[in-house]
Amino acid sequence: MEDVSDPPFRALCKENGADMMYTEFISSEGLIRDAAKSLKKLDIFEYERPIGIQIFGSDIEAMRESTEIAASVHPDLIDINYGCPVKKVACKGAGAGILQDIPKMVKMTAEIVKATSLPVTVKTRLGWDEKTKYIGEVAERLQDVGIKALTVHGRTRVQMYKGEADWTLIGEIKDNPRINIPIFGNGDVDSPEKARDMKNRYGVDGIMIGRASIGYPWIFNEIKHFLNTGRKLDAPTVAERVEICKRHLLHSIKWKGDTLGILEMRRHYANYFKGFPHFKEYRMRMVTSDSLPEIIATLDEVLNFYSPFEKAG
Questions:
Q1: Active-site pick, 13, 84, 91, 245
Q2: In the annotation, is 84 catalytic?
Q3: Between the chain's N and C termini, which has fewer beta carbons within 10 Å?
Q4: What total number of domains does the chain contain?
Q5: Hey, how many other C-beta atoms are within 10 angstroms of the C-beta on 156?
Q6: What is the pLDDT of residues 48-78, one digit of tens each?
């Protein structure tokens, strides 16, 4: 969720039912060196609570120091990212890369727990590859050094995001009588039905939604409503999609300024209107414009063009 789960995006997720949120993951090296981009990611707001600050890195001392820095802005918890699979992170021994050195993973976690009075949680994967799915043992060892919750993505690092997530081992962790911390599952949950099935089948305490919320923050309320009632909410209308896209854009500008706010919003337009036929023309106009009035006008055109089809359907 790098460059996605920033305050503008989180505001919309919170409004649409997200119970718990995390910042973008923040480099420990960036924090201890006062890098502007890393420090900016420490921005959290009262309406977001409960919210965790997520850190990553490969050096134990840097992670300990960055924990203290992150705790100084008073989040509700500190989350350690041991799950990011991208090459520039994992191949430096951070994120999912630390799954190749479980003793170091446990030692690092213990030092982070000792560095703060805040709850510490972990997100990780099943293992580095098919031969090293040690997540059952890892869960016990991380619990033993003091983490308060564990989220597991049902793939190995080698899989990246390919194939289907395997929740079997996640369920086994939840069934382990030695485990008494909350266990959260992650991976491929992109509908209320999948959320229900994973929760019922594997007994997890909760479900983490990542990629499925990009351009679709409604998913949180949709899942909660379905779990509570057994009925599905109507999909968002064209008008609702346009409205929330506008609000995302305005949030982005307010937090980042006109230039960067408009520039970094460009990655989101296609997601809000995924599956809309002939949307490319509108998207190209929005991603090549630096003018807020022009982008708003284009979104109004999107509303006027697609709404009649919605009513006809």
A1: 84
A2: yes
A3: C
A4: 2
A5: 22
A6: 999 999 999 999 999 999 999 999 999 999 9
